[in-house]
Design a protein that fits this description.
- This protein has one domain.
- Helices cover 25% and strands 33% of the residues.
- It has 5 helices and 6 strands; from the N terminus they run αββαββαββαα.
- α1 packs parallel to α4 and α3 packs antiparallel against α4.
- The longest helix is centred in the middle third of the chain and has 15 residues.
- It starts with 13 loop residues before the first helix and ends with a helix.
């Protein structure tokens, strides 16, 4: 049996194995899809990662399928482990996340929006009781223009996005609460209602 990074299971520290198992145990809400992804191998001696995408139809119901070929919101959560610890981490584990989401036109350039974006993360960590230290990161608004899209008849296609990059040191090696917080972060970035909430249109139809 091999672990992430091609290492034989016998050479992997038990703490890292338990941390990975706790991350794998998360069960996200139905609108989110988790997939295994390759972790950057040079960030630490032991690494592992998974990706999360928000179902485009759940985020933007009723839109044409041709416009939903790529998810509006996606993210990656990467686990790093150095048994010797690192001073900058203040521990032996480090979680690194990246989330990208589409912005509405009126949100682009809003000076307060980065504060809102950062609160998605901090509130998710608090909500799920994910104890941590040394939290830091950035929230960036980007605007780009793509050309050559057939469905747009050659017209330029504007993409306005927000990108959140952050890292923190979890307390202990049971990281399920951190995976749950990350999934909540992606849901917030996608604009999904709180889990279990019935949309107003569905209530009216009942």
């Amino acid at each position: 049996m091999s672990e992430p990074g091609g290492r034989e299971s016998g050479s992997v520290p038990s703490e890292f194995r338990r941390a990975v198992e706790s991350l794998e145990s998360v069960r996200p809400r139905p609108e989110l899809r988790i997939t295994a992804v390759d972790a950057p191998p040079r960030l630490a001696r032991y690494t592992w990662a998974f990706g999360v995408e928000a179902d485009a139809l759940a985020v933007r119901p009723g839109e044409a399928l041709d416009d939903l070929d790529e998810p509006d919101t996606s993210g990656r959560l990467i686990l790093l482990h150095d048994p010797a610890g690192r001073e900058a981490w203040q521990g032996t584990f480090r979680l690194v996340c990246f989330v990208q989401a589409r912005l509405e036109p009126e949100q682009l350039g809003d000076e307060l929006f980065p504060v809102v974006g950062w609160s998605w993360l901090t509130e998710a960590l608090e909500l799920h009781g994910a104890s941590h230290t040394a939290l830091g990161g950035t929230v960036t608004q980007t605007s780009s223009v793509r050309f050559g899209e057939t469905r747009n008849a050659g017209r330029p296609n504007h993409d306005d996005d927000v990108e959140l990059r952050a890292s923190w040191t979890p307390a202990g090696c049971d990281l399920r609460s951190h995976a749950e917080a990350f999934c909540s972060l992606v849901a917030s970035a996608a604009g999904l209602p709180p889990a279990g909430t019935v949309p107003l249109m569905e209530r009216s139809a009942q």
